Amino acid sequence: MLLSKFREDMETMPIILACLANTCLQQDTIDVLVSNNLVEIAVDLLQTHMDLESVAENAIAMVAALAQSDKPKKVIGSGNGLCLILTCLDKYRSSRRLVLRAIKGLGHLTLRAQTTSSRLHEIGGIPLIVDVARGYSCVSKDPSKQAANAKIQSAFMLLIRNMVSHNKELIPVILEEDIEEQIRLESVHPDVNESAFSTLKELGCKVELREEWNGVHGDLFQQGDGEVSENMKGFLSEYRDTNAKNMIDQAGMSDQIDVN
Fold this sequence. Notes:
The chain is built from 15 helices and no strands. It is mostly helical. The radius of gyration is 20 Å and the shape is globular.
C-alpha cells in the first residue's frame, strides 16, 4: 500500500493522510482502509511524529474520518488514540485548523459511544476542551475570525451534545466549567445560534420554548427573562452594534445609516 511505502517520509505523509481522509464518504471505503490497518497506522503516526504539526493535523483528520464508522470508533475510543488527540489539542491549541479537526474528531468518537464519553471525562478531557474552545470565540470585530471560530463553536457544541445524550451524569460536570454563559455568548453568531439552543436544551438549562427563539439567528435577547446578566446584555448589545457599524462601513453606506 502507498502509505506503507512513504510511512517514514514526513513530507509526503501529510498529503497522503489528507487525501485518504477525504475519501471516507462511504462505509465501503472506510472498511477498506480499516482492513489495511489505517487505524493503527494513523494512531502510530500521531504518537511517533506528534512534534510535526502537519503530520499530527492530518493524522487526526484520518482518525476522525475513520471514527465515522462504529467499529474503528470503538477501537480508537478505547485505545491510545483518544489521549493522543487530547494531547495534540493542548499542544497545538493556537492552530485553528488543528483545533477544529481535533474537536470534530472527538465529536465523531463520542457519537452514540457512552463508554468513550465517560472515558473522555475520566482522563480529564472536559476542562481542556472547554478551555481551548473558549479561546476561539465568535465575539470578534474581525468578520473572518467570526466565521472561522463559528465552525469551532458549532463542532464544540455538537461534541457536548454527543457526550451527554447517553451520559446524563456528565451534565453537572460540564456545567461546572461555566459553559452555560459561554454558549449563550456564542449564540449571537448566526451559524451557532441553533446549535447553542439545542445544546442548552440538552444540558437542561432554562430555555423558553416560545416563539421568540424560532431560528431568528443571533438574537440572544429572546431567550426569556433572567437568563443573562445585565453586564452580559450590555456587552452583547455593544458587540452587535459594532458588528452592524462594521458591515455598514464595508458597504460604503455609513452616510446613509446610523446605528447609534
